[in-house]
């Protein structure tokens, strides 16, 4: 749970780097996705890692879409892949 909250916090920090008009959409999108998985079975570490990797990859996709430097997601990558 603690790792998921860290990932969510980092995703929201990245949303702040997006253009102002797109921030509400992606903040809501991130929240909805994290809420959808709140009942996820945390006893399967491989499945959790898969979710965190998807969160990172999707964040990179959004950053690239808006031409935000990928290095902004370095901390998110550390949390997602190293815990």
UniProtKB/TrEMBL annotation:
InterPro entries: Complex1_LYR_dom, Complex1_LYR_LYRM9. Pfam families: Complex1_LYR. Residues 3-57 form the Complex 1 LYR protein domain. It comes from the Eukaryota. Belongs to the complex I LYR family. LYRM9 subfamily. This is Complex 1 LYR protein. It comes from Corchorus olitorius. The lineage of its organism: Eukaryota, Viridiplantae, Streptophyta, Embryophyta, Tracheophyta.
């Amino acid at each position: 749970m603690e790792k998921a909250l860290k990932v969510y916090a980092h995703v929201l920090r990245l949303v702040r780097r997006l253009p102002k008009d797109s921030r509400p959409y992606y903040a809501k999108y991130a929240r909805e996705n994290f809420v959808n998985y709140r009942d996820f079975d945390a006893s399967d570490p491989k499945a959790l890692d898969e979710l965190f990797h998807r969160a990172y990859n999707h964040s990179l996709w959004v950053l690239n879409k808006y031409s935000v430097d990928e290095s902004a997601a370095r901390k998110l990558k550390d949390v997602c892949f190293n815990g």
